[in-house]
Amino acid sequence: MPRVGDDVxxxxxxxxxxxxxxxxxxSHASAFLLWEFPGFLPGSSEPLLHISRPDTVSIMRRPGxxxxxxxxxxxxVVSHHGLLIxxxxxxxxxxxxxxxxxxLTVVADHLLRVPRPDFESRSEPYAxxxxxxxxxxRHKGTPGIRKARLALDLARVxxxxxxxxxxRLALEDAGLPEPLLNVPTELHAGVVRQPDLxxxxxxxxxxxxxxxxxxxxQIVRDIARxxxxxxxxxxxxxxxxxxxxxxxxxxxxxVRRTLLSRGWSxxx
Length: 268
Prior knowledge:
Blueprint: H1 10-20, E1 25-26, H2 28-34, E2 49-54, E3 65-70, E4 77-80, E5 83-86, H3 88-94, H4 101-112, H5 129-138, H6 145-154, H7 162-173, E6 180-181, E7 185-188, E8 191-193, E9 197-199, E10 204-208, H8 216-231, E11 235-239, H9 245-261
Parallel strand pairs: 2-3, 10-11
Antiparallel strand pairs: 1-2, 4-5, 6-9, 7-8, 9-10
Helix pairs in contact: 2-3, 4-6, 4-7, 5-6, 7-9
């Protein structure tokens, strides 16, 4: 479902307020949208523009603007396409008050993710675990910081999407073992696959099939992928959006059945 402001019109609408008003930057829900963060932030669909200023100056009061004040270190406000905006890590912390631990973990995984240079225009993650830890240490006592700390403890490097993070968290919450994330796995000589989640010791792979998997060419690739796993003695568990409904109960049940069929025990 599209979010209000989650488009090319947000930056032009917010830029005048950050340009003509001293010490002002896009923040909170507006920064969340401008950085294109995954996850659900309550209130991000509202048309209000969120702008922060240092606590040494007055809060911004303008029609259509939600003003914020806070303490800012020099590296916590950056220029993004010519627009002053709170940094990714600061935005993550600022939004923690309204977000759930799960959704904060989704964003943390997004920030920690190591990109694939062959497909992306960057080679470094948006943030390291140390960057996020430093942000939390700088602003002790900030509303929502306890949730942010819990989320950082749950965050892992390797998740490629929000559904993958939510699936991992659902499996762990249900008492299933923590899976490996997007680890290249040699199935045969010269045949390497990289499952979204995997349990190599049980030869169980788990894939989340998003909307793009309904395209004809992708269906062909998915069949070939599954055949590779089967030939190597693996079981490939395919999860769809339907399985993720109702707190991912169907997804958890499907993975649990497969692990049990491979000799896993809840007491392992």
